[in-house]
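Inverse folding, one chain.
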């Protein structure tokens, strides 16, 4: 997948020229908030990462948090780890939060062999192997009691030996297989502003974050891509939230309702799996059910999300020129 082909900036410029700049705002630059790269070294005082163009170093303060499948100390970060760093406001070289080897598996269970699952994320993406380690298996099974083919699975964990080692469930599993999901009739009226759950995914699948441009793009995958002009592999269903059809390259404004961080972000990819779920996000008492967007990993962190939580409640505005 090519980022440059998917985002299609010419669409925004054309819309802006015809309907005015407010109809298609430029994407918000978020690079001063979040950095992603590969850990070179980590001490109790400083983190050094390989990033495009060289190395970058970050100091810590007394509130800096570290996550690597669980809350850890800086000395548990390892050379070669894929890491995402949230800077302190103002772009200072001080880390507010660090996530290492973060991974997510969202999709339908295809097969199971003991504590190993094979997950199909849909829309043409490669299948993912998930390992359920003993220390987290009980927590996973409480919210995913049916680890059988055909059931939906969504968990956050870490990359290890080419697989996602699940650390915690990202949602509660529906009580039925995907094939038996209740039919939701299509809604004929759509609003340009709607609320629901924002999740995250990694378009680079944890590979070479200092080299692969997909690892650092700030964008969203959307659950309701217009079937005209898009790959039929975007196997979406009628979403829990009534969503207008959009095309890749469209721009939407998204606000984290918990932290009030907001940005205009381009639609990069299909998030059909988000239309398979009708869940709630417990963050800050949200009541809106259904998923409205899946941010790339860096975009999610830049807007105040914690990767281990898997979601935040969000309000999305689709601009008039892009419905």
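Residues assigned per position:
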């Amino acid at each position: 997948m090519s980022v440059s082909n998917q985002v299609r900036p010419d669409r925004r410029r054309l819309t802006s020229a015809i309907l005015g700049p407010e109809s298609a705002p430029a994407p918000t630059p978020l690079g001063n908030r979040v950095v992603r790269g590969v850990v070179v070294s980590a001490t109790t005082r400083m983190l050094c990462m390989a990033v495009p163009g060289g190395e970058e170093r970050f100091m810590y303060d007394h509130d800096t948090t570290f996550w690597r499948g669980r809350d850890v100390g800086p000395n548990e970060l390892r050379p070669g780890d894929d890491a995402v760093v949230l800077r302190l406001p103002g772009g200072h070289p001080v880390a507010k939060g660090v996530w290492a080897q973060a991974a997510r598996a969202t999709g339908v269970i295809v097969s199971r062999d003991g504590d190993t699952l094979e997950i199909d994320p849909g829309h043409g993406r490669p299948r993912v192997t998930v390992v359920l380690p003993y220390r987290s298996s009980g927590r996973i099974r409480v919210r995913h009691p049916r680890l059988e083919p055909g059931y939906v699975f969504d968990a956050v964990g870490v990359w290890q030996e080419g697989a996602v080692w699940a650390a915690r469930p990202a949602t509660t599993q529906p009580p039925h297989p995907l094939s038996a999901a209740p039919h939701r009739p299509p809604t004929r009226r759509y609003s340009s502003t709607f609320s629901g759950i924002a999740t995250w995914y990694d378009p680079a699948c944890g590979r070479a974050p200092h080299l692969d441009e997909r690892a650092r793009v700030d964008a969203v995958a959307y659950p309701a891509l217009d079937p005209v002009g898009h790959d039929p592999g975007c196997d979406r269903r009628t979403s829990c939230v009534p969503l207008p059809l959009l095309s890749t390259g469209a721009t939407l404004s998204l606000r984290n309702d918990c932290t009030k961080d907001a940005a205009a972000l381009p639609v990069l990819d299909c998030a059909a799996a988000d239309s398979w779920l009708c869940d709630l996000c417990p963050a800050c008492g949200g009541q809106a059910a259904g998923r409205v967007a899946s941010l790339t990993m860096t975009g999610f962190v830049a807007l105040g999300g914690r990767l281990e939580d898997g979601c935040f409640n969000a309000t999305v505005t689709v601009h008039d020129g892009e419905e």
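Confidence is low (pLDDT under 50) at residues 1-8. Helices lie at 3-7, 9-19, 134-143, 297-302.
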